[in-house]
Amino acid sequence: MRFTAANARELAAKAHAARRQRLASGIPATETSPLTPQVGPHEAANDYVSRRLARVRVQLDLVDRRIAEQANRATVDGQLLNWLCAAQERLAEQERILSGRPLPGSRKPSPERVQHQAALQDLPAPALPDSVSVQAAPAKLLRLEHDPPPSVPVAPHRGC
């Protein structure tokens, strides 16, 4: 179907009429929308989500096991490892959404937490007792900004 100004106007009028009719009937849009997951009359929506979450977690465990097997082989198949890591990423995103965890920074802190943080910032800094002197502390305990960080051995990167 090709959209023109005439049929777009006609379809918009039909959509507005359907919306007015739905609002007049008092049925919420979530009950009439075909995009919502349809569950049977005998199961709650939370039951579907919990079963789906369990299946996704089982799949994540299987993919993790395959990644470990592939990474421990003498000859690593990079393409297979890449596919497994991509599958793991997709499954982890589904698991995050189904379990209700938001992305970092997407949820505002509660008002009481904001007030608590503001109250903590207003507190004075704790004073050191007279018996403690910064100059008397051993040099190993004092780290200056220009001191290089201690060297940490780094393992070679293998896979995800």
Question: What does the model show?
Answer:
This protein has helices at 5-25, 29-32, 45-71, 78-99, 111-122. By secondary structure, it is mainly α. It has a domain at 10-103. Helix 3 (45-71) runs antiparallel to helix 4. The relative contact order is 0.07. The mean pLDDT is 76.
Write the topology of this structure.
Elements: H1 5-25, H2 29-32, H3 45-71, H4 78-99, H5 111-122
Short descriptors:
160 residues; 5 helices
> N-to-C SSE series?
HHHHH
Shape: flat
Q: Give the count of helical stretches.
A: 5
Average the pLDDT over all residues and give the rounded result.
76
Span of the ends, CA to CA: 46 Å
Largest sheet: none
- The class by helix and strand makeup works out as mainly alpha
Tally of strands: 0
Helical fraction equals: 40-55%
Radius of gyration: 29 Å
- Strand % is under 5%
Question: Segments where pLDDT lies below 50 for 5+ residues?
Answer: none
Short recap of the structure:
The chain is built from five helices and no strands. It has 160 residues and is mainly alpha-helical.
